[in-house]
Amino acid sequence: MRKPVLIFGLIVAALLLAACRAEVNISLDVAEDGSGSVAFELGTDQEFRDLMGSSGADADDLFGDIESGVEGGEVFEREDGDMSYQGVRVDFDNIDEVSDTLTDVGSDFFGGFGTFSFEIDESSAVFDATLTADEQDLGQDIPFDPSQLSGDFFSAGFVLSMPGTVTSHNADEVLADGSLRWELPLLGGTTELHAESEFGGSGFPWLFVIIALVVVIGIAALVGAITMSSRKEKQAVSAAAVASQDAPTPEADLPDPDTDLTANE
After folding, report:
1. SS3 for 212?
2. In angstroms, rounded to a whole number, what is the distance separating the alpha carbons of residues 225 and 229?
3. Of 43, 97, 107, 42, which is closest to residue 72 (Cα–Cα)?
4. Angstrom distances, CA of residue 155 to CA of 6, 8, 31, 110
5. Among 100, 124, 125, CA closest to 112
6. At what angle do helices 46-54 and 59-68 cross, to 10 degrees?
7. Which strand ranges, in their side-by-side order, compose the sheet holding 165-169?
8. What whole-number distance in Å separates Cα of residue 181 and Cα of residue 158?
9. Is 183 exposed, middle or buried (CB count within 10 Å of its CB: 0-12, 13-18, 19+)?
10. What is the mean pLDDT of residues 62-86?
11. Quick one: pLDDT at residue 4?
């Protein structure tokens, strides 16, 4: 597999002739049970591909180097804006199976993982790694600052999708899907990568919460019904009392005995 310094030579020409962009990514996706996939991909924009074509080269040749370094991988393509990506993905049943692949293929990209650790249990995961890139000697006569190779023109990244909810990390960027991305050194240096997440646990707490909510709602409804019934009963009693006060008494219609006797005399 070609070392990044050969790609740098193409980028040098691109910087002198056109605004091109190329990107290399290593992606690791881990599920709660420790299974997942690892992918290696090369992304280029049309300007970069046109520049390589005009020089008699082909961007597919660069991807061919990537594909040949990964055994048993599934080739894929994807589009993201003006970038076209070609990659190869390998599935695994246990994260321990992929450390060697990352170390071997990663060394062809950036110099290699000095350390790689992914500890996972029933409720959490912890990722730690150290990636060191070899120093690149581009010569003394290049007409620009070598650091301009990174960023807008060429970048390399490690993308990690942790199981569960990420609780801490030192990534350079959190992508839209929640994945973490670290910018990797291109011209030499070391990058420390760290992430932690939590997941799993029993579903019973959620059941208790739901039951508690149902009970609270039921009690509230019962109290409301009792209150309304009591209020209606009080209103009925009050209405009956008012009606009884307004009604004439039977004694008011009877004749006065003394008055009637005097009249008869």
Report:
1. helix
2. 6
3. 97
4. 14, 11, 27, 11
5. 100
6. 100
7. 113-120, 124-133, 189-198, 165-169
8. 6
9. middle
10. 76
11. 46
In whole numbers, what is the pLDDT of the chain averaged over residues?
Answer: 74
CA 184 to CA 146: how far, in whole Å? 15
User: Which comes out higher in pLDDT, residue 81 or 244?
Assistant: 81
Contact 88, 40 (CB under 8 A): yes
pLDDT in tens, 90-129: 899 998 888 776 766 555 555 578 888 999 998 999 999 9
Of 103, 100, 88, 91, which is closest to residue 34 (Cα–Cα)?
91
Both structure tokens of 257? 């005995």
- CA torsion 96-98-101-106 (nearest 10°) is -100
Cα(112)–Cα(62) distance, rounded to whole angstroms?
Answer: 19
Tokens of 151: 């960023």
Give the residues across from 183 on adjacent strands. Answer: 157
pLDDT by residue (tens digit) across 20-44?
A: 788 888 899 999 999 999 998 888 8
Is the sign of the CA dihedral 38, 44, 49, 55 positive or negative? negative
pTM value is 0.64
Going from the C-alpha of 109 to that of each of 35, 148, 194, 236, the distances in angstroms are: 24, 19, 20, 86
